[in-house]
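Please go through this protein, sequence plus structure tokens, and consider how the sequence yields the tokens. Keep your notes short.
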Amino acid sequence: RAAAELEALSADGCAAVPFDENWLGALSFLALASANLGNREVVSELRELLAPYSGRFVMIGAGAACIGPVARFLGWLAYIDDDADAAAALLEQAAEESHSTGSELWLTRAHMGLGLALRARGAAGDAERAEQLIADSAAAAERLGLRPAGRPAAERKPEPELKAGVESSLRTRP
């Protein structure tokens, strides 16, 4: 059912999504869905649609909620699209933007994503930095009252399990 809804909402350049104050938020949620479902066609399309908004934070409504920097969503999309260098750069950007606003929540999420992306990329120096980011993020998540979903993030394998649950690395407690 989720795949069918994603297909319907993303058809024709996401024409079904009203271009209003919730458009950026709606596309960000579609990005999460497409990443979790591994729908590469939608992933590529959403990367194009969201790219001009990099550098901004996603607000829902007239500022009722903030769901983080656009770069974080773009980073996940790049990761699913097997663009490891872009994923790392975008998640690094998301971390910097989160830090600049003083949001420990979004910084923690960006660092967790960056750690997972670096672990999967596997370039020189990535493994050590990835493990440090993941460990620091897990500690920050505990301090903030967040919990890792499923197995601890540090125990997740980079392929394919990671891609299947990429956004579920941290969830708010009920």
Summary: The chain is about 65% helix and 10% strand. Confidence is low (pLDDT under 50) at residues 149-174.
